[in-house]
Amino acid sequence: FMLKTWTRLKSDMICIGIIPFFHSYGMTAVMNASLTLGMRMLLFPKPPPEEVLCSVLNDMEAPEGIVYVGVEVLFKRLTDFVKDIGYKNFREKYNIWQKLIYAIQGAGPLREDIRLGFEEIFCPIRVGYGLTETSPVVSIDPFWGLYKPGKIGLPLPGTEWAIFDTENFEAGPICDGSPDNDQFGPEYVGEICVAGPQVMLGYLNEEEIQENNIKQYKKKRWILTGDIGYQDQHGFCKIIDRKKSLIKVSGNSVFPKEVEGVLKKIDIVDEVAVAGLPDKETGEAVKAWITIKKNFGLGTFLDMIKGKKFNPEILRQICEEKLAPYKVPKYIEIIRKFPKTITNRILKEELVEEDLERLKKGKKIKGEKIT
Questions:
Q1: Domain 160-242 CATH (choose: 2.60.40.1080, 2.30.38.10, 2.40.170.20, 3.40.30.10)
Q2: What is the distance between the alpha carbons of residues 287 and 362, in angstroms, rounded to a whole number?
Q3: pLDDT above 70 for 311
Q4: CA–CA separation, 366 vs 354, rounded Å?
Q5: Is 334 helix (H, G, I), strand (E, B) or coil?
Q6: Residue 291: which H helix or E strand, with range?
Q7: CB 328 within 8 A of CB 286
Q8: pLDDT tens, 69-107?
Q9: Can you tell me the distance from the alpha carbon of 205 to that of 292, in angstroms, rounded to the nearest whole number?
Q10: Quick one: CATH architecture of 3-130+139-152?
């Protein structure tokens, strides 16, 4: 019902449902939203080939338009499909580009290059944000008015968010949009906390988790999201990273997303994950795992690393130009593919665990060491 007043979704639209209903994003953004708004659902038990999806939609009447609820990888696949068969050929063969009105992204961040590529062909993507503990939606990009790509929109009606000190919640918000707490911008970073009717009552039989994650402030129940970010003067929040992902190198804080952002801009890099690993000298060391784009063969890339065209020193130089010295990855490992969840989130914990097991056995951390 909060979405009903906040979006331009309406009855008689068709909602494409590929996200499984056992995931809170699929259950709420597809099933609950469609039932509440009176939209028809077009459901798939698993992601279909793009040719099948487009062919099915070709034959469907959609006078009010279609909304595509998806995740980053699905939008990228559809965009790549168009590029592969040619834009002109695609428009002559399929009409999905005329029927799509909105796309909604959730369950993770959306890369700007993927958003721009999809929107150039199809329709605007609106990014939502939430967590299981908030039933799960907190915010979504506005469907009209001011829109800020790269941020997580504005809170739903009846929902508040504020930036609190990560070490001292009781001191009150650093920024909540009010005149008394108006410390806006990236220099005022803290933990994003949320209050509203969708915030759960608590964790059953988990007193310690309850105490650390749900707190009272001025008679309101706040959930500490674990996301580190800041708020701008228009009320939009920007996530910098997860609190648990923070890497400490010689006492200095390193946010993995900052390092990932630098590495993603390198032409050959497809996907990247950054995490911290134990280090005798600095406490923790920064490690990056990278996959390369499919138009670069792995053998070719390994040759490049050996010095024929490309080597880790170039990666180092790129990172050093953009990052403080302690943020530059000490290890870089090229892998064929990432372990992922069903919503395409990279399972960093599995990557880290593999190296931790090596350390336990007295082996070195995998990857090219940059010194």
A1: 2.30.38.10
A2: 18
A3: no
A4: 9
A5: strand
A6: strand 283-292
A7: yes
A8: 999 999 999 999 999 999 999 999 999 999 999 999 998
A9: 45
A10: 3-Layer(aba) Sandwich (3.40)
